[in-house]
Structures are given as C-alpha cells and as structure tokens.
Amino acid sequence: MTATRYLLAAAVAPTLALAAASEDFDRGYELAGTKGCLECHALSYRYIGPSFRALAETYRLDPAYRAKLPYIIRGGSAGHWGERFVMWPQQQLTDEEMKLLVDWILSQ
C-alpha cells in the first residue's frame, strides 16, 4: 500500500508543479500588462525594449542582478541594451509587485 502511495504521488507531482508554474506565469504576465511593461517589452522578441526572455537569458544566473533589477525598474535605465533603449522610471510598483515582476522576468 505504501509503494502505491509513493507511485501515485510521483505521478501527480509533475502535474501540480506545471499548474503552479502556469499560475505564476499568468500572475506575472497580468502584472506586466497592468503596469505598462508590455507597452515596450514583449516575451520573445525585441519591441521597443529588449524581450523578457533576453533579459532572463542574460541575467538569470547573476545573483547580484536579482537585487539590482528592482532599482533599475524603479529608477529607469539607459545604456544597458545600447543607446537606443531608455526605460522611464516605474515607481508605481509596490514591493510585493516588484518581487513578483522580477521573479517572473527572470523565469522566462
């Protein structure tokens, strides 16, 4: 009976993980939309600013960047992605929203 429970748990765990990941993606994407991020950024292609996937691929393995990104978002940025890209300060995000947004961006 115990082996059956372990097998059942092992079979269900990936489904639950995918559901949680999907919910996290939806929450992050909705926040990016409501806060205006999608006016300049897209998921997988360069629009006005770099794509979220390009940001994630460049910075997700840099632990210091996770701490810097909230300051970059709130304070605006220029020169990170060439002179063409200047991001206006985005000070309307709460600390909770900022954490969700940073986690979402770096998970792309």
Any descriptors?
single chain; about 110 residues; mainly alpha; 4 helices
In short:
61% of the residues lie in helices and 8% in strands.
Describe this structure as you would to a colleague:
With 108 residues, this protein is mainly alpha-helical. The protein contains four helices and two strands. It has helices at residues 2-34, 52-59, 63-75, 95-106; strands at residues 77-79, 82-87. It has a two-stranded antiparallel ribbon. Helix 1 packs across helix 4 (95-106). The longest helix has 33 residues, at 2-34. It is globular and about 60 Å long.
Quick one: how many beta strands?
2
Cα-based radius of gyration, to the nearest Å = 17 Å
Strand content: 5-15%
Biggest sheet record: 2 strands, antiparallel
pLDDT below 50 for ≥5 consecutive residues: which ranges? 6-13, 15-20
- Please tell me what the overall shape is: globular
Report mean pLDDT, rounded to a whole number: 82
CATH topology: Cytochrome Bc1 Complex, Chain D, domain 2
Helix segment tally = 4
N- and C-termini, Cα separation: 40 Å
Number of domains: 1
CATH superfamily: Cytochrome c-like domain
- Strand order of the main beta sheet, please? 1-2
What is the CATH architecture assignment? Orthogonal Bundle
Order of secondary-structure elements: HHHEEH
- Quick one: CATH class? Mainly Alpha
In helices, the fraction of residues equals: 55-70%
Backbone structural class: mainly alpha
